[in-house]
Amino acid sequence: MTTFLYARVSTNDQNTASQVEALTAAYPDGVLREEKASATTMERPVLRLLLDMLHKGDTLVVWKLDRLARNTADLLAIVDHIRERSASLKIHDQSIDTGTASGRAFLQMLGVFAEFETNLRKERQMAGIQKAKAEGRYTGRPAKIDPEAVRQCLEVDKLSYRATAKKLGIALSSVQRLAKSV
Questions:
Q1: Per-residue pLDDT at 5
Q2: Cβ neighbours of 33 (radius 10 Å)
Q3: CA-CA distance, 118 to 37, in Å (whole number)?
Q4: Phi and psi angles of residue 127, each rounded to the nearest 5 degrees, phi first
């Protein structure tokens, strides 16, 4: 029976140090794997590998629930996969163990509340943006590409898309997208 420890952060400027410290202190014999990814479960190769490696009696341990799943559907899919392999999941900071019926129920409730909180936060953010727009304080991100400069390069200077992108220091796809509207 193996204990797998999974530490994850969403961006490259974050680090897993606090997660690793907590997990390895609690499970010194655990097999630690770290990942830097902000994606669904299926787009996180380290997590997918760990889930595929689980066998009967193994345990997957994560520091916090939000390090494992972004929404209830992902969480339930992960828990089902782990259960199908006769393994269990532990959420370290909340002492949840899906090896027990109460642990499974509590985990599902937490997943629902976490998703609810995320949705409320998104709604508040959108309401704030709408209010700022109505007051003229929110204009969105300023344009970084001058469509007139792209038009000049393509039509007047007769540069190729690639040469235009290089000259203006922008992505080729941006030149292609703007060329359709020029």
A1: 97
A2: 16
A3: 18
A4: -65, -40
